[in-house]
Structures are given as C-alpha cells and as structure tokens.
Amino acid sequence: MVATWSGCTDLEEEPIGILAPETFFTTTDNLQAAVDGAYGHIASEEFWGRKFTLSLLLRGDMVTIGDPTTSSRRIEVDEFRMNGDNGMVTSFWPRSYAIIGSTNYAIEGAASVEGTEEEVNAIVAQARFVRAFTYYHLVRIFGEVPYIDFAVREAEALSSIEKTSVEEIYEGIIEDLEFAKTWLPDQQPFRSMPSKGTAASYLASVYLTIGNWQGAYDEATFVINNSGRFGYALEADFQDLFDATKADGLVEHIFSIDFKGLDVISGAPGIDFLPPVTGMRGPDIEGWSVAVPTVAVFNSFDDNDYRKAVSFDTEAVFDGVTVPWQDFGMANRGVSRPHIAKYYRFPGTAGNNNRDSDHNYGAMRYAEVLLIAAEASNELSGPTGEAVDYINQIRARARNAAGTMNTFPEDLTSGLSKDQLRDAILEERRIELAFEFKRWYDIKRLNLGMEVFGPTSMEPQTNFDSTRDYLFPLPDDELGRNPNLLPQNPGY
C-alpha cells in the first residue's frame, strides 16, 4: 500500500518515514500545507481527474464505451469483466491512500502546533473531512478496506495491517464528519475547502447510504434551514454549473474539486482529463469518445427539459460543416451517439483535447441536499408536502433555460403514493445529477443492478452478477504484498 505526504508548495511526494509529524509541524501554516497536499491528491489524474471518476461513470447505466479501441482496462470496468489487476483500480487505490496519508499526518501533527484550539481544530477539521470523504468512496466501492487513521512512519507498519469491517469504517467516517461539523467555519474563502455545511451535507449522504433516514433528514434539513448562513442556493441557470469560467463564484457548490487550467507538469496534481474522455472524436474535434451515453439514455430525457440540452452534445462541426449526432461516426473511431456536454463544452482555460481544464467539479451540490431531504422525508413520513416542495424547487430552476422560462418540467403534484414519490425522486436524481458520478452509488445502495443492466434496459450488460459486481476487486498487487488483506472480494 502506498501512503504519501505532500504540501501545497512542494507537490513532489515524500514517502512516509522521511518526515515525522511531531518534528515537522510547528505552525498552523505547516498544518494547512499538509491539508492542501491532500486536496492536491484529490485533484489528480489518478483520482478525480480521470481514473476514479471515469470508473464510476462506466460502472453505472448512463454511459458505456464509445471508442472500441480504447484501453481494455476501461472496457473491463464497463462490461463487468474486471479483475484485481485492472489498471483503473491499481491507479486510484494508491492515490486514495495518498490522500488519507496526508490527512493523517496533519491530524497527528496538530498536537505539536502552536495556536488556539479554534485555530488548530479548524484545520484539523479540514483534514478529518477529507479523510472521511475518501473513505466514504472507498467503502462504497470496495467494501472492507484497511482503515488507517494514524501517520505511518515506516512502510513495514503496513505489512501486517488487516481489512476493517464496513460498519467500523462508517463509524470512523461519521466521527470525522461530526468533528468537522463542530469545528469548521460557516463559510470558507473557496468551495474547494469544506465548511460546516459541507460536513453536514456529507453526513446526510452517508446516513442516506446506510439507510438511517432520520439522520439523513436531520442533517439535510439542517443545511437547508441554514442555507443563508452557509451561502447556499440553487444557481439560476443550470448551465452555469458546468461552465469553468464561472466556477469560482457558484453558490450551489457545497464541495468542489478545483483544477487549474493548463497545469501540464507531468504527474502533478491539478491535471484534468475528464473533458477529453467524455468529448466527441472527429477530424477537427479532439475528444476521445470513451464514456458516451447510449441513445436510449439520451431518449430517456424529455426534449423539453433544459437539463437535456445542458447535459448532451448533439451536434458538432466537422471540417467546417455542422453535423448531427447521427453522423458523429464519420470520424475514425468516433461513435454516432450524443456525447456528454457537462465537461467538454465549457472547460475554461484548457489545452489540446480540452485536457488540463479549469473546471471546479461539484462533488456535492445544494440540489443534491434537497434530493436527500426529499428521499429521507418520504421514507420517514410518506409523500408529504415538504418532500414534494424540495423536488419542485429543483424543477423550478430547470424551467429557466438561460433566461427563457419554460413550462417543463412541471411541479410534482400532491396525491402521489409513497412508492410513486420514491420513484419520482430517484428519477429526479438521475436527470439532475446525470454524469456527476452519483448514479453507480444509487444503483448499489438500492440494489438496482439486475433491473438497470437487464436485457430491456438502457444499457444491457449480460455480465452483471449481483453476487459479485456491487464491489470492485481489491488490487492484486496489494494482496500479494500483504496476505492479511485476503480474501479477495467475492467472485474475483
């Protein structure tokens, strides 16, 4: 297992064992530098910039492979044919533990830092939020993983570590988020730094995932009822959420992953490849057509829904001629399907292929908190007016098409049954959060795999096996280095 530390002023990774927290951390600036290093690891190509997020996209039922000549490791994830040597997993697993390693160093180092309790704990709370954020992804993807909550000084310490139960991992996540909610400020200078509302929003999401409806409702409504205090609101125009030139001022972002345009230092954090892997390939268009929605997914969006126009690219200019999506396949290795527009259309300052974008990805948006509150409320109390109102706030925003007010989507009306409202909320999540790395987690937590990958679904996948595929395989190289991590996840 790889665990590394890095600071914001020196992005070269330092192996654990070179630095000791009690000797390095003497000021709050040192402490913040370690946390900044963790943010840098999140905004890396191996994690949010491609490997990890692309895996989540391909695992769900909203996109599948476009270019059939793309790397086999991607095709294996998409078609449920992956094993423990899959190159996606063996990239984002060590980067995940690099994030965790940075936070553990900051948390332990805080004991040596001079400053008031409020000053020190406000930075420790950032570290504990990031640690919780990372483990929350790991536990949903792999199930039992090693839960490391200490600074590793010698690599040998990892050779005997064992997996931690899912229940214990969630206990650690909740404990970290509760600490963060207590000590973080109401607002931060940037949405790429967590605030009190960020911690509460993730608590709501965690409780939703584990089926604690009351906890999810309490935390989500805490954020909603204090939205003015935290500076949260729905953006007026849905398109603005995916325009990198406007990303720094978005009030809807509760936690964002911040990339720096044209940061082309090889291997450095800040490099984003999501726009090209989702963008279309053509003679004078430089996307790669890797993760592409099926036509059935495109058709499942109502043509009158502005979110469809924002989410999909349906025409492009090839050799000076505008062509519809039905003709995208004219390009070598292109594919005649609508493509994801959320990341490729407005990448801000970017390089070739729109790589190295300037996006701030909304890992948690205020709209999602409204959706969590609606779902939890419905599960607790049935189809109340409160739950319906949360959905209608999102639908009202969707009716604003760049300043032109539409009549679609109409408000949900009263009179729905609990089951009908549950289905409506899940569908609203699918449309509102399309291609934002949420769909696989919904499929998993609601056990929808046999339905959404069946022969009449939007993305049939005959290899899907519900006894195996709700978990990814653990990396074989980790199992080889440390047999205590055995057994491999079932079916692999």
From TrEMBL:
Into which family does the record put it? Belongs to the SusD family.
* The organism's taxonomic lineage, starting at the top: Bacteria, Pseudomonadati, Bacteroidota, Flavobacteriia, Flavobacteriales
Q: Which InterPro entries match?
A: SusD-like_N (IPR033985), SusD_RagB_dom (IPR012944), TPR-like_helical_dom_sf (IPR011990)
* Origin superkingdom: Bacteria
Q: Where is the SusD-like N-terminal domain?
A: 82-208
Q: Which organism is it from?
A: Aquimarina litoralis
Coiled-coil region(s): none
Annotated RagB/SusD domain residues: 338-492
Phosphoprotein is among the record's keywords: no
> SUPFAM superfamilies of this UniProt entry?
TPR-like
What are the record keywords, sorted? Cell outer membrane, Membrane, Signal
Main subcellular location of this protein, as a coarse class: membrane
List all membrane-crossing ranges. none
Q: What subcellular compartments does it reside in?
A: Cell outer membrane
Q: What's the name of the protein?
A: RagB/SusD family nutrient uptake outer membrane protein
